[in-house]
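Researcher: Batch entry, complex prediction.
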Amino acid sequence: METPKDDRLAEDLRALRPTPRPHFTAELDERAAAGFPRRSRLPRPFRSAPVICTAMRNKRPEHLRRRLLLPAGGLAVVAIALVTAVDAINDTSTDSTSGGGSGVLSLTAPAPEAQEPMRAAAPPVETSAEEATAASGAASDAASNLNFDGSGRYVPGRAHLTSKPGIRNRAVERSAQLVLGADPADVAEDSSKVLEAVHAHNGIVMRSSTRQGEAGVAGARFELLIPSARLGDALAALSAIDEVRSRHEATADITAPTVRVGELLQDSKARIDSLLGQLEAAETESEREAVEAELRQERRHRARLRAELQHLQRRADLSRVLVRIETGAAEEPSGGGAWGVDDALDDAGRVLAVAAAVTVVALAILGPIALIALLAWLTHRAWVRRERRRVLS
Amino acid sequence: MEQTLVATAEEAPPAADLAFDRLYRSSRDDVYAYVASLLRDAPAAEEVTAAAFERAYRKRNRFDPERGEPRAWLFGIARNAALDELRRRGRQAELTADPADLDGAGLDEGAAHSERRLAVASALERLEPRERELIALKFFAGLENREIAQVLGISESNAGTKLHRAMTKLREACNGDA
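Model: Structure tokens for the complex:
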């Protein structure tokens, strides 16, 4: 055989060119004329089966799945974002109402023991009757159980749980915020009255500041700890000092952590008793040393638990109260008077703020997801390219 | 081959469809020949050819003439579809075997021609898959070097060099047979 010349070789190669079956080209022409309708990706053996597989093909499960998967995923992400945003907004609202407390249970309705009519009470938050009753019951029970020493000082650790029959034992942390309106000239006198009221109710002034000046500048601020048992009386006395501009109260149920720590403390005591027994029964020096080491560790553990319990008891027994004395015109309470342009602007601002918050939360969720999806897509693409190259190498 | 899939604004959809129709009619058998030479399985080649046209049809509005020739674009899609099929089925081993599926057209043109073409087919089988692909793009699909370069993502001169080397090896393989 002669060596093929280039042109002859090219001719031979063209002659070896695979040609499609006429039936296939006719079918493809039909599909081209129809605009290439989508086909299923069933395995070939199924495609050659005539009737039943045609029906299966028409269902196009993979395409349907893909079409449904994307919107479903998008909806899920949006739902998660909305739920998170609403939750975040609720948290913010609760925090602002309860003055930074835990916000487990918050009451902003005017307290019944208020002696002065409140001009600018916040709108009441819906709270179930059971919770409110339980909270106030717990608080009043705490009041009856509160302990003071002979000098009137508070002794923590004995009155943190209610024990009244018929009401669940609960440890409740209470807090309050009171804003008083005063003339600039009366700020000093009102401040003195606040201190008197605090001392009269065995309270503690954590922090205070007083500022003199003209209306709007002058004012005072007090951060107080009042025995929860006497919180109602103290708030009444504080409210009587001057015009009450606003008053908020909040409660948080800390029963669960208190009970848990108490149980742990009992366990620890039992453990120490057991170890002491073991120490008595120890016969060798090494046994004794081992038991003593364990005893030391358990005692440290008990000390930590006791401190934690005292902290919880202190939170239940002493209520945080913030008193502010303001001068100048009181702010117009929301909802008062006719609804006007300013209110509309305020409302619009609030709506925009909420929308912005929702958007930020949604972006915070969607951003990482989108980034992960992008990275996954790029990785998949690179992998596919590499695999394609590998197929022919 | 002067074709474009881009049309003026006022006649965009029909012109794009017409351009694609022209591309389809001029490339149908070429695409099949190229895909069949890669897959070496006629039924699979039919499936992949149809899938490639389907994919190209759906992407026809995304074709950018500044990035290459329409035929190169189409063969790029067909190539990816064929490689995906090979990858999916793990047909790597079969790339170097099973020469029987090649429809040797024109084998009845005389004993001398038939013998020579069988020798060429046999030599072709002994080439590397990448070299066979180059020859398939050139002689089965009828692409210019410029279009081959676009399909493979290499420069035109590189495509020409590689094709020359593949042809040299093929010629030597034919010499070996002789």
